[in-house]
Amino acid sequence: MNVSVVLASFNGENYLKEQIESILPQLEPNDELIITDDGSTDQTLTVLQPFLQDSRISLFENHFLGFKENFTVGIKAAKKEVIVLSDQDDVWHPDRLKETKKAFNEGADILIVAPCFVDKKLQILSKERYNYRWRSGFWLNFWKNSFIGACMAFKKELAKEFLPFPKNVDYHDSWIALLGYLRRKKIVHIDRELIYYRRHKGTFSGERKEMGVVVKSRVLLLVNLLKRWSLLRKSESQT
Fold it and tell me: Contact, 161 vs 58, CB < 8 A?
């Protein structure tokens, strides 16, 4: 089994080199790393240049698509059986891909591994503030998502079900996971910290929102999930 690692970048000059250097030793000759850059205005592309000599690495340059569509470009370009998502500013544990491949060889459809929350210098953050709690099941994750995109992987064949990401759905990770639950896919959680998940001022996720905004986003998420689920069921009944 081979994997496509899809790494989305945007102004990641400070951390990107370290992340790629944690990924490359884990790639086998027939694996691939797809980097989709969304119009970086810093030195991100300069940082990437030396790595592009590796034939396993492909770079797609986009222009301010937003993080969901930036990931979409990489997912569509992926050629291998399993797609592993990656943020630009994390660092992978050396066993991340080994454990990922093992899980899919044992029948997983979607995988989530535990994160270790660290600061910009990779120092472990307080468990009192950053405490990851895994929740299994549709409704528990609908109300409070425990899926983190940077910690996820899925079978490539599933991409045709969850793409395109709806424009009015906030995050790709909860969309993939919840649709997976509705579609009765085998979702596996590895309770081992295989991602050093950086939290810093430039981090996009983790922003607090007002309750009214949260409720509206949940309603839109549920409506879109039911629409997609219905379309998929209808398509299957016609084949």
Answer: no
Q: What is the β-pairing status of strands 82-86 and 3-9?
A: parallel
CA 161 to chain centre: 16
Tokens of 171: 């995050």
Residue ranges of domains in the chain: 3-237
- pTM confidence score: 0.94
Using alpha carbons, list the distances in angstroms from residue 180 to 107, 152, 190, 201: 14, 12, 17, 32
Handedness of CA 231, 232, 237, 239 (dihedral sign): positive
Side chain identity, residue 108: A
Contact in structure between 66 and 38 (CB atoms under 8 Å): yes
Q: What is the pLDDT of residues 212-224, one digit of tens each?
A: 778 889 999 999 9
Cα angle for residues 132, 135, 138 (degrees, 5° grid) = 140
**Model confidence over 174-207: pLDDT tens digits?**
999 999 999 999 999 999 999 999 997 766 555 5
CATH of domain 3-237: 3.90.550.10
> What is the spatial distance between Cα 78 and Cα 64, in angstroms, rounded to a whole number?
21
Contact 190, 97 (CB under 8 A): no
Predicted pLDDT of residue 200: 79
d(CA 2, CA 32): 8
pLDDT: which is higher, 57 or 216: 57
Evaluate the CA torsion angle 118, 121, 123, 127 in order and state its sign: negative
